[in-house]
Amino acid sequence: MSLRLLLSAILAATVVVGSERADARLAGLNPFVPDTTLQRTDKTPPAAPVLRLGGVDRGRGSIHLSNGYSTITGEAEYGSIDLAVSPIGRDLSVVDDIGYCFHFMDGNAPDSLTLPAGAWSATHRLHLYIQWNDGETWDQDGFRFRMFVTAMDRAGNESRPSNVVVVEHNGNQEKEYTEAKHRAEQSARNDIALDLLSGTYTGTDSAGAGSAGTRNVRVVIDRYRVRFHYSDGSETAYMEVVDVVAHDDPEKLNYIDVNVAAGDYVGQRRLGVYRLDGGRLQLCLGPPGGERPKRLERTSRTTLLTLVRATTP
To answer: Quick one: fold of 3-172?
Structure first.
C-alpha cells in the first residue's frame, strides 16, 4: 500500500480536531522546509521514526502563600506535550535534514489544541515540544487522544507512520500544586533571608589550623555580595552569594553558598551554614570545593565568623 493510501486509511477512521481551535505553539522549533528539486535524484522516503511520549504538563493557576500573598509563574497558562523522536536507518547521520509532521488519530484533545500543520525540525535532543493555551488554573479537565508522526527528508519524501502514542492527562494537579507551593514558599523564605542578612557586621573570624587564627573583621553583606575587611589590613576578601536556603524550622541551620571572587581560591565555591538571631550572626564556611559544615564550629577545615550587626543597608 502506498504512503498516501496508508495515511488516508488511518485518517479516515479518526475524529478530526475542530478547525476552530487555535494552533498550538512549537517551543523552540523551526519549520522544516524541503527542497523538492532534490526529488529528481532522491525519491527514497526516510524510515518510519520511533515516537515516545516524554511527558505532559498542564496550565497552572495562582499559588497562595502562607504569608497572604499569591504568585504565578511566567506563561503559566500554557500546557505542553513533550514528544521524543528517534530516526532510524540512514537517518541517524542526517538528523538535521529530517523534519516531522504531526498527525492526530482519535480521541479527545484539549479544546484549544490543534496539532500544527507542516513539517518541523526537532531540537538537538530530538524532542518536539507542543504548547497550547490551557488556561491559568489548577482545575483542568482530563483528556486522552492518540497521534503519530511521519518523517520528511530534505527532498520532501515522507516516511510511513511512526508507532501510535497515547497522550493523556487526568486533569488532577494536586501533587503538582503541592510541589509548586513548596518551591514558591521556599523561594519566598530565601528572598526574605537575603534581605535579613544584608547589613554591616563586626566581630571575629576564626579560621582553621595553619591560618592566621582569630582576627577582627568587618563584614558587609549586600544581598548577593559579601566583603570581609580585616582590621590588620592583611586582606580584603570578596565573595558572591549564589544561594541561600532558609529553613522554616528555627532549630535548623540555614544554608549559604558563596563563590570566592578574589584571592587564591577565586572561582571556587564554599558551602556554609549560618544562624541569624536578632543582630547576632554566626556563619561557618567549609573549605573551597569541600563539604558543607554540619555545625557552627571551628575545625581544621572550616572558618567560623561570630558577628554582631552594626548597621542595616
So the answer is: Immunoglobulin-like (2.60.40)
